[in-house]
Write a structure and sequence with these properties.
It is globular, with a radius of gyration of 20 Å. By secondary structure, the protein is mostly helical. The termini are far apart. The relative contact order is 0.20. The chain is built from 14 helices and 2 strands, in the order ααααααβαααααααβα. Helix 1 runs antiparallel to helix 11, helix 1 runs parallel beside helix 12 and helix 2 crosses helix 4. A two-stranded antiparallel sheet has the order 1-2. About 80% of the residues lie in helices and about 0% in strands.
């Protein structure tokens, strides 16, 4: 009887892993396409203002949800910032540089270069969380990186600004995933509290920076605010920002920071090939196309390695002594 209950529990845990990963993948795919349409097709001048809209939507939706008792998280006090730090800084860096990279690069190159966040996450998990990836996981990650490098070397639409943005986005994505896992494990604020206070603490400085840089004025003078199709997609992006944040936390909670990062990359398989058609800013070359496909194959290999078994993790924690040493280094 006990054995049956354990098997049922394992199955429930496995389905939570799968469903949370699928939810994140769908949300990430949708917001990437919508953001690209807003920033490139409609030529919206400020990715910072779009990011502010997503932060504002997160604050409002969670505030209302807490008031009507749909969700629950700790109220603001003097210790809240200390409990959540450094996530707000990582969160805003991840959001803004991600939107900036989406605006500057074609979707196929954006998705290929995002593979570097997986390598960064794998390294950070080792030194921050004491989690060591298996050889099969390492092989799949290195395959993705090789493909991304081949694609980047042969990128005919190379933009320095876009590459800087995407590598900063990779860094913040990796650190966000790892520290999010650490904060979720401590259970001080919960998943809703992390989402709410990440946005709450950073919306004022982010608004000031957007004002100082002139992005607020540029957005105010944008000519298509009376276009209902654009406005609908802008509002959808804001709400999807909240949904994406929730799906990231949920996936990280039930899986790992590395799995969350890789699922985000897997959805890029669809974005990669769709982006060659819909955005109009991808310049085709065979070496670039081959590199992108090598990176895609690495993503598929990782998916197989991660989810092929329900009862065995793809990586194992390091011994306690090694975890302590790694933590001290960080």
């Amino acid at each position: 009887m006990v054995r049956i209950q354990e098997e049922v529990s394992e199955q429930k845990l496995f389905f939570r892993k799968i469903l949370s990963a699928l939810f994140y993948g769908v949300a990430s795919f949708m917001i990437t396409v919508v953001n690209k349409t807003i920033l490139t097709t409609y030529g919206f001048p400020s990715f910072q203002v779009l990011g502010l809209g997503q932060m504002f939507a997160t604050i409002v939706l969670l505030f209302i949800a807490k008031k009507i008792k749909l969700v629950n998280f700790p109220s603001l006090d003097l210790n809240t910032f200390g409990k959540i730090f450094p996530l707000p800084l990582i969160y805003i860096g991840n959001m803004f540089f991600g939107l900036g990279g989406t605006k500057e690069l074609s979707l196929p190159m954006f998705t290929a270069l995002r593979r570097f966040s997986i390598l960064m996450t794998m390294v950070l998990e080792l030194y921050v969380l004491g989690v060591k990836p298996s050889l099969s996981v390492q092989f799949s990650v290195y395959t993705m990186i090789v493909g991304a490098v081949v694609a980047a070397v042969n990128d005919l639409s190379f933009k320095v600004r876009g590459y800087i943005f995407i590598f900063l986005n990779n860094f913040f994505t990796a650190t966000n995933g790892v520290y999010m896992k650490k904060k979720l494990d401590s259970k001080e604020l919960g998943k809703y509290g992390l989402m709410y206070y990440n946005s709450l603490f950073m919306i004022v400085p982010a608004t000031f920076f957007a004002f100082y840089s002139g992005d607020l004025e540029a957005a105010y003078q944008y000519q298509y605010w009376d276009n209902y199709l654009f406005l609908g997609q802008f509002l959808l992006s804001c709400v999807m920002g909240f949904i994406l944040n929730y799906s990231v936390i949920l996936c990280t909670l039930h899986n790992s920071a590395l799995t969350t990062t890789i699922v985000g990359t897997l959805k890029n398989i669809c974005v990669t090939y769709l982006g060659m058609v819909i955005a109009g800013d991808y310049i085709f070359s065979w070496p670039n196309f081959v590199g992108i496909n090598i990176s895609v194959i690495g993503s598929l290999v990782y998916t197989y390695v991660t989810f092929r078994r329900k009862d065995t993790a793809s990586y194992a924690p390091l011994p306690t002594k090694e975890v302590s040493t790694s933590a001290n280094i960080v």
